[in-house]
Design brief:
InterPro entries: ABC/ECF_trnsptr_transmembrane
Order of helices and strands: EHHEHHHHEEHHHHH
Shape: globular
Protein name: Protein ABCI12, chloroplastic isoform X1
Helix content: 40-55%
Organism: Vigna radiata var. radiata
Strand content: 5-15%
Keywords: Membrane, Transmembrane, Transmembrane helix
Number of strands: 4
Largest sheet: 2 strands, antiparallel
Distance between the termini: 81 Å
Transmembrane segments: 121-139, 151-173, 211-231, 251-273, 350-370
């Protein structure tokens, strides 16, 4: 037997005659007996062997998973997921959406949040198709392929989950009335219009009209919110969005709302989003570029790399936040948002394109309201 590791365990026991079976009521050891008690030891030898013929002492180290987290793929996925401009302004290619007034864009965003919940299912999917075509026209190819794929995946999972889970599992309810055949009554005829509450069955699950309504509402609303916000952030600078929000919130100053502080917070948040995604991507690219041999690392070493990765992200983010605060102090910011002047670079103007967008929005809202009454 080939022994790779050997461990010697020493355990000391007192003399059994004096402790387990005392002859006197007061068993007090003399100094000589104490020395002898220290020398009474029990030696136990334990070994872990590595061999094919020894079935009792198996090598437990081979069952420890090594490289099971596929850490290299995770870091490559993180580096690739943040490669597309998420929430960042894209100045090229310039489209008509870049020239639309930011106040009109905010009105569109509010309408696109409400319309999927208050319109017919045809209008919901029509909004999804419209945003898809608009994203393919406005955004660069590498941006819309990545964004649409991820948003469609999330919306599809929500549609399947809610469609089969909302009304898919029938309740075990026993009818209180006997069937018509027992009472001598004829069965009711099937509806001539072909209406059926159950659309399809997938084993024990059932896809009903209620599930279709709930799933389409949630999936279309999720897609509309994510993609419309992405389009707005991609074609509008942070200064323009802050100006539009300030224009809408100016009347709230008369009731004590700190409009300047809210606008400054929004402007800093929009500026900080790009820094966060850049740090996440750059640190992941740094780990991938070092070409670590993940197969030779243990599970704890792999977890330690992930913890160091998140620690480095937060450390760099806090460092950027401190640099931004120091830059604001150098530029004269003293903590009072009302007295600090915010430069929006360029004032927005209302033009013909904005009027056409508002007219189209009015038509869309009217069609969504009428769809509830005329589309069944």
């Amino acid at each position: 037997m080939n022994c790779n590791y050997a461990t010697f365990i020493s355990v000391s026991f007192p003399p059994p005659s004096s402790v387990l079976f005392p002859k006197r009521t007061s068993a007090i050891l003399t100094p000589k007996q104490t020395l002898l008690a220290r020398n009474v030891r029990l030696r136990v030898r334990a070994s872990a062997s590595k061999g094919d013929g020894n079935a009792q002492a198996a090598n437990w180290s081979q069952w420890v998973p090594v490289g099971s987290f596929a850490a290299d793929k995770v870091f490559r996925l993180i580096a690739g997921a943040t490669a597309s401009p998420i929430g960042q302004f894209v100045a090229y290619p310039t489209t008509f959406l870049h020239s639309v007034d930011p106040r009109v864009k905010l009105v569109w965003l509010l309408a696109l949040v409400v319309l999927p919940a208050r319109s017919h299912i045809i209008m919901r999917f029509g909004l999804v198709i419209y945003l898809t075509l608009l994203s393919m026209w406005v955004l660069p190819r590498n941006a819309w392929t990545d964004q649409l794929g991820r948003v469609y995946l999330l919306s599809g999972l929500l549609f399947i989950t809610l469609g089969l889970g909302s009304d898919g599992v029938p309740a075990l309810v026993q009818l209180r009335t006997p069937p018509p055949a027992m009472m001598g009554l004829p069965n009711l005829p099937v509806s001539l219009s072909g209406y059926a509450y159950t659309i399809t069955k997938l084993g024990p699950l059932t896809f009903t009209r209620k599930g279709l309504s709930v799933a389409s509402t949630v999936a279309c609303l999720t897609f509309t919110v994510f993609q419309s916000a992405s389009l707005c952030l991609t074609t509008t600078t942070p200064e323009q969005l802050a100006f539009a929000l300030r224009w809408f919130m100016l009347p709230l100053r008369y009731i004590g709302v700190s409009v300047s502080e809210i606008v400054l917070t929004l402007l800093l948040s929009l500026r900080f989003i790009s820094l966060v995604f850049d740090e996440v991507r750059n640190i992941a690219l740094g780990i991938v570029s070092r070409r670590i041999n993940w197969k030779q690392l243990t599970v704890m070493e792999t977890i330690d790399i992930f913890f160091n990765y998140f620690r480095r992200i937060f450390k760099n983010i806090f460092s950027h936040a401190e640099q931004i605060s120091q830059a604001m102090i150098v530029r004269g910011f003293k903590g009072d948002s009302g007295s600090h002047k915010i430069y929006f670079l360029s004032e927005s103007s209302f033009g013909m394109v904005d009027a056409i967008c508002l007219l189209f929005l009015t038509v869309l809202i009217g069609a969504a309201l009428l769809s509830e009454y005329y589309l069944v």
